[in-house]
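Issue 218. Parser rejects a valid record. Input:
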Amino acid sequence: MTTTARCPVPNRLIGETSPYLLQHAENPVAWFPWGPEAFEKARAEDKPVFLSVGYSACHWCHVMERESFEDDTTAALMNRWYVSIKVDREERPDIDAIYMDAVQALTQQGGWPMSVFLTPDGVPFYGGTYFPDKARYGMPSFSEVLSQIAGLWETRRSEIIEAGAGLTATLRQEHASGMSPGRVTAAAGTLDAATRSLLRSFDAVHGGWGGAPKFPQPTVLELVLRRYQATGDERLLALVTTTLDAMARGGIYDQLGGGFHRYATDAVWLVPHFEKMLYDNAQLASLYLHAWQVTGDESYRRIVTETLDYVAREMLDAGGGFYSAQDADSEGEEGAFFVWTPAEIRAVADRVCDDPVGDTELFTAAFGVTPGGNFEGKSILFVAQPQAELARLSGMALAEVESRLENLRTALFAQREQRVKPGLDDKVLAGWNGLMLTAFAAAARVLDRDDYLSIARRNAELVLSQMRDRGGRMLRTWKGGRAKLNGYLEDYAHYAAGLLELYQATFEPRWFHAARALGDAILEHFVDPAGGFFDTSDDHEKLLLRPKGIQDGAVPSGGAMAATVLLRLAEYTGEGRYADAAEGALAPLQAAMARAPLALAHWLAALDFMFAPPQGLAIVGADPGPLLDVARARYRPNLVVAAGPSAEDHAIALLEHREALGGRATAYLCRRFSCERPVSSPEDLAALLDQ
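Output the parser choked on:
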């Protein structure tokens, strides 16, 4: 007897560009992408909608696909009773935010994959996250859920409609939460209250905040570093260095290839969830760069360059865009690409080392590799012993220990490159690219790296030429020369921030003007007259509600970044409309910021900028290098810099009416509404900046 394997027939996802959606394009489920066609079909056939939201690097999304969406029997139930929609949360953060709020209201928890049942009008009435193929973990099977909901739709529909209406009303009411009523004035005391809260809740042993799972939270650490700069409180610097040191030593950092995994599943940064996200590595590279500027610790500089080199090697499109993510899984097994056994290390040492036994012992001691392993029988590499301690114990010179470890580390990396790599999500998202543009441009400026500057320029050229429509409006996603979807607030704000950083690395006016155009679009299309910013533009697709998230997640909230960008534009241009919109967003959040600094850290950073007061530095004249070196030497988060051969060469207000005195490059420093006397010597500028 012979059997014929089912030949997959592509569903409607086959025309999408999202790697996540394309992963599901040959499921037997008759998936629709989000759009009117799906809802029209649901109304015409009187069926509820099943909405599944996930992303390509999500481990449990893959599990649910294998168990349910690739199963013919389960797919038949879905196709009979539902119209099924699949959404990539990274492409559509608006849909994700709206329905995640619904799931959290229904279940008091959330996550991905997200599974939501909707009326044909898009109203949610039941939801959850992962459902197993068989009843376990205290959860019903997915097939049972499908059957029960279909039965309720037929027999108790009026109750479903009523429940959905009540849930929608709750979501709309909560949508405005966190905003203080009436007119509120921004207060510097909010920063002090938030700082005290962060000190109280910090994990002084392992770094970071909270227990397992533990997330890096670079936005919070940037805020703490800012407050250290403002106050000189050594306790704040200790919060940052304790956390950065622990992460750099841990398994959350890729000790061979550079770059950070998404988070630690424990409280000590050892066992990561192995996916690598663009936004984590962008923000952490910037954070370690700033920490190096503050402390001079060369280990932080090493983390910056290893992380950016990893991105340039693994996550950079030939056209200049940065890819979104690398999967946690390799060959269907989580973390397989990254873990080692002593025998595997010895096999490599036998080929490349003069003393393979000794070097294997040295490496396994340095990076915590044991016969039993620390992850499913194998070992995640972490810094188990500092190299100085290994030198003391072995009697070798430190330089010899460093050389032998680096030799084997390089060889192990080359060996690892022969393994099957984790899956790659190669779509380019505008907002996330803005975060990485910021990191490359800042590192190019601070570390004097022309290669990083070239990468930053190419990225800006790609995004500005191919990820805007004919009217100059941002588009969310690009892949293979095809850009689509309306840009969100975070796309405008994060990319504008990156362009301002690129301007400060090059002083090419085109980058400033592009950033200002994005800032103007924020004012025109995203401002809420009641204060703050909507996540979607005023001409966006009409959804259940217009989202207006204020909390930082894995990336800073779009509103907080918009406030930051607008405050910086106000310094460059002297135009109060930018500052007014930012203050209008910051003021109503005072109580929330003081109460929940972990969730609103980037808003607090914007508040810090507003109260610093910010400094505007204009440098005009030939050979501004020595003066710029002074401005770049230290971490100065509240300094904006403009420079050019002469004031007439730039349409930037900060440069207007500035002259090079005595034929020498001259610096003009202003704070808020007053300016210092112009100076031409680096020593005089340093003295002014440090006042």
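Fixed in the parser; the record now loads. The first strand starts at residue 32 and ends at 33.
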